[in-house]
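Ligand: adenosine-5'-diphosphate. Inputs:
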Amino acid sequence: MNKVVRKYIENSVVSVLFTSSLVTTITVIFITFFLFYEGMGLFREKPLEADFIIAVNKSNTVKKLDNQQIGAVFNQDITNWKELGGDSLPIEILSLYTIENYYSEEDLGEDFSLLPQKINEFLEQTPGAIVCFTKAFMPEKIHGDEIHIDNIELLQFLKGKSWLPTSQPVAQLGILPLILGTLWVSLGAILIALPLGVASAIYMAEVAKPKLRNLLKPVIELLSGIPSVVYGFFGLIIIVPFIQQLFNVPVGETALAGSIVLAIMALPTIITISEDAIRTTPLALREASLALGATRWQTVLRVVIPYSKSGISAGIILGIGRAIGETMAVLMVTGNAGTMPTSFLQPVRTIPATIAAELGEVPMGGVHYKALFMLGIILFLINMIINISVEYIKKGRVGR
Amino acid sequence: MAKKVEVSNLNLRYGDFHALKNINLSIEERSVTALIGPSGCGKSTFIRCLNRMNDLVDHVTIDGSVLLEGEDIYRKGIDIDNLRYRVGMVFQKPNPFPKSIFENVAYGLRVNGVKDKSFIENKVRESLVKTALWDEVKDDLKKSAIDLSGGQQQRLCIARSLAVEPTMLLMDEPTSALDPISTAKIEDLIFELKKQYTIVIVTHNMQQAARVSDVTAFFYIGELIETDTTSKIFTNPKQEKTQNYITGRFG
Amino acid sequence: MNKKVSEAIAFGIFRVLSFLLVGVLALILLFIIVRGVEAISWDFLTKMPSDGMTSGGILPAIVGTLCLMFGSIVFAFPIGVLSGIYLNEYLKESKLKRFLRLMTNNLAGIPSIVFGLFGMALFVNKLNFGDSILAGSLTLGLMVLPVIIRTTEEALKMVPNSLRVASYALGATRLQTVFRIVLPIGMPNVLTGLILSMGRVSGETAPILFTVAAYFLPKLPTSIFDQTMALPYHLYVLVTSGTNIEASRPMAYGTALVLVIMVLIFNLSANLLRRKFSKKVKLK
Ligand SMILES: Nc1ncnc2c1ncn2[C@@H]1O[C@H](COP(=O)(O)OP(=O)(O)O)[C@@H](O)[C@H]1O
Ligand SMILES: [Mg+2]
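Predicted complex:
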């Protein structure tokens, strides 16, 4: 063939290859960028629903309230301004929910046309007043002080104890219960899966006859391919009722159920990787130990496990990673209560399950939507940490 | 005799590491040149300069000139694939492709655009005959090359290089992974090939160098210490380093 | 004597644990198979769901899942394999390459719900594909793309460098070396990876939750802009939010079994492929 034609073909194929990886690279970077862009937008937002305004009496010394304080005021967890650093005055709330306590329908006139006027009256006459309405209802000139509300802050977001993204008038966006829920469920799973997984890996690599091993290994690999909904289904019809009866709790959808299902799902990962690691122990090392009169068990304990430690750790960490990110099965069996977990026999809610449960209903671009993206970022970062630690552990092995 | 290769002031660096220092060497047409020297002294690096295999390594810088039949192979715009087509290479470990015996030998022709079936068949046969492999494999040319013995694999690799009719053959310790019987066969083969080809061979085996080569070059830590006819190098080297190496090796 | 006893005890415990574990896992499979077989029939596989999903079949879910699988692979496989080839065979080791590898590895491990989140925001909303097979396939495709790249790279890494070098030494160009030597040897492993990712795609729920999956849509999709039912989501719906959860139980068992069988088929064919070729190409 003509050399020039060949060169030409060669170049065009190479450019196709190059283009593909360029596309991939851009995609990969784009996904990351997009997630962060949408999620970090949360911290440029106020937790207040769009166009809501909160105001208090002019004489009130409290001029600023944070997210949680507002939530507490409107939930009536706090009923006196003293608790917020003001004078000792009872808090009197005027909002769409409480308005009938103060004014009759006639007072407000047709289509609430008199409402703005009443709001100003209320603000002027009640020293402990706090009012909250959308801009449309608020008087043009408010006879009171508007409460300044800060943008959502990262720290608040991370350590806030209540996750009520749709609460009125301010969304409560504290993800601590979700983080703890995720950690509880995953740690529970690892506590169950770790001894079982490592024991089975050692058994398969060191004790079982090759025939048995060749039977067990494919079964375990197969199990890692089964879709998570199927595990969730199984958990829901077997494990959940079982827990409910065994511990005599009102609902069986608990952190424990999640841990058990996740343990089952993480086991194949842990076993496969640990077993591979154990089998890389050089024969010479084993033989040296056996030749000194050590039993096989001693050899396993003193030679094989120390040698394959890093591989086993990698397996465990990847297992934890899988548990933390698992969505559907957890969504199905943990009951999804967004409260701070206090016991394994209580419903909990994890980060991935929160995204899955709420994403369908959020208005695009709102605070709640961005908060879910922020949860996505947290999963992204957790995964990155897991990846880096696995790399690090593996490198440690090479360097040794 | 005509000069086949003329290397002058050749320097090679792997990153900062100066692996070849100012090498000057000329190689005669239809001769066997043996490269000897302790491990890591740059023999492989040198031989790979002759068909620009070092281009495949990252961070390599090369200066100086290498003339092959009068043409500078490091000049800009040279067709490197064509250079490698003209200079055959046999490696330390046999590395047949996981293809049939026939396809292994035909590979070089095919990638260089030869389509003529009967031509390819003839070439395959001719090369296998030259390497004394024909009688052993002629009935199962379709068999995978992986299933041959180590010695057969190495002869197949030589046949593979010969099929494209190179003007020169580079061999980097071609027998170091083989048993003595296969080694002897390959040495005989080198003796035969010498009639037709210019051969450069790296070896750790002094007897081998003594048996097959006309000229021997002694490398030491990146430098070419001494070149002379093989008989002189082995019986009466000028340099002390050469002397030490050779007595150490034979003794 | 003492050490013999401790060995016997330790190995005994390991044996019991392992059998217990495999027993439990096998039980799960068995349970789904036994209950599922009762539910599966020809009608189940070929009919639309009816009576509030308590009877009829799951045809639209099967078809939907096949569409999604096909759609995502059509998009991810060529790009993934070509990129893998480029990364492994052409791109030299460099900071850029390490960065790319870090990013792809990272992306390969991200929980699938994050892809669902991304897919919904980008394909469904920003690009306005709506809930559609297109949006779902792209989302699933993005999810497996890094996996495919990584499998390709790993498969090509297993091809010994000595063969590449031998090919160059015979005057072959880089492209010829890639296509005649590297790919034929590495391809079976690439394909094995492909089959496994098809299995993964067909079983994922989280990425399709908000990008394509329909709660109840008893018709077959006619274009890539249609919504569709899908097996894993259908199972989820039947179990957690059907109109009559008790009555749709048999449907759920049947659907679960169909999913498991799909995974089984993918796994077995991947294993067969791997075995067939690893015998043919023994590489040292
Ligand atoms: N790809 C490479 N990168 C860096 N250093 C190399 C590379 N290849 C060889 N070297 C170094 O160059 C020196 C010469 O190597 P080589 O030519 O293989 O020696 P020989 O074949 O004589 O044993 C050695 O010190 C070796 O470590
Ligand atoms: Mg060498």
